[in-house]
Amino acid sequence: MLSEREKARIVSIEGGAGVRKKLTDLGIIPGKYITVAYGSGGGPRVLVVDDTKVMVGQGMLQKIIVEL
Description:
Blueprint: E1 7-13, H1 17-25, E2 33-38, E3 45-49, E4 52-56, H2 58-61, E5 64-67
Protein backbone atom coordinates (compact mmCIF):
# COMPACT_ATOMS: atom_id res chain seq x y z
CA MET A 1 0.00 0.00 0.00
CA LEU A 2 1.22 3.43 -0.90
CA SER A 3 0.90 6.35 1.48
CA GLU A 4 -0.34 9.80 0.53
CA ARG A 5 1.92 11.62 -1.94
CA GLU A 6 3.89 8.45 -2.75
CA LYS A 7 4.56 7.80 -6.42
CA ALA A 8 5.07 4.36 -7.94
CA ARG A 9 5.20 2.62 -11.31
CA ILE A 10 2.47 0.10 -12.10
CA VAL A 11 4.03 -3.32 -12.71
CA SER A 12 0.90 -5.40 -13.31
CA ILE A 13 -2.80 -5.73 -12.66
CA GLU A 14 -4.06 -8.89 -10.98
CA GLY A 15 -7.59 -10.21 -11.17
CA GLY A 16 -10.08 -11.16 -13.80
CA ALA A 17 -10.85 -9.54 -17.12
CA GLY A 18 -13.54 -7.30 -15.61
CA VAL A 19 -11.17 -5.80 -13.03
CA ARG A 20 -8.41 -5.29 -15.60
CA LYS A 21 -10.85 -3.62 -18.02
CA LYS A 22 -12.22 -1.24 -15.39
CA LEU A 23 -8.74 -0.20 -14.26
CA THR A 24 -7.56 0.14 -17.86
CA ASP A 25 -10.57 2.35 -18.59
CA LEU A 26 -9.42 4.57 -15.71
CA GLY A 27 -5.94 4.82 -17.27
CA ILE A 28 -4.36 2.49 -14.73
CA ILE A 29 -2.13 0.31 -16.90
CA PRO A 30 1.30 -1.30 -16.44
CA GLY A 31 4.17 1.05 -17.12
CA LYS A 32 2.37 4.21 -16.00
CA TYR A 33 3.09 6.07 -12.78
CA ILE A 34 0.48 6.71 -10.13
CA THR A 35 0.52 9.00 -7.11
CA VAL A 36 -1.79 8.75 -4.12
CA ALA A 37 -3.41 12.20 -3.92
CA TYR A 38 -5.27 11.44 -0.69
CA GLY A 39 -6.97 8.73 1.28
CA SER A 40 -5.84 6.41 4.01
CA GLY A 41 -7.00 3.59 6.20
CA GLY A 42 -9.50 1.11 4.83
CA GLY A 43 -11.39 3.46 2.54
CA PRO A 44 -10.99 4.40 -1.10
CA ARG A 45 -8.03 6.45 -2.32
CA VAL A 46 -7.74 9.13 -4.94
CA LEU A 47 -4.96 8.37 -7.39
CA VAL A 48 -3.38 10.69 -9.93
CA VAL A 49 -2.72 9.08 -13.31
CA ASP A 50 -1.61 11.27 -16.24
CA ASP A 51 -2.75 14.44 -14.41
CA THR A 52 -6.22 12.92 -13.89
CA LYS A 53 -7.63 12.07 -10.46
CA VAL A 54 -9.51 8.79 -10.09
CA MET A 55 -11.05 7.22 -6.99
CA VAL A 56 -10.34 3.54 -6.45
CA GLY A 57 -11.73 1.33 -3.68
CA GLN A 58 -9.68 -1.01 -1.52
CA GLY A 59 -10.65 -4.14 -3.45
CA MET A 60 -9.33 -2.75 -6.72
CA LEU A 61 -6.32 -1.13 -5.07
CA GLN A 62 -5.16 -4.55 -3.94
CA LYS A 63 -5.12 -5.69 -7.58
CA ILE A 64 -2.64 -2.97 -8.63
CA ILE A 65 0.94 -4.20 -8.27
CA VAL A 66 3.50 -1.36 -8.10
CA GLU A 67 7.17 -0.72 -7.53
CA LEU A 68 8.63 2.40 -5.97
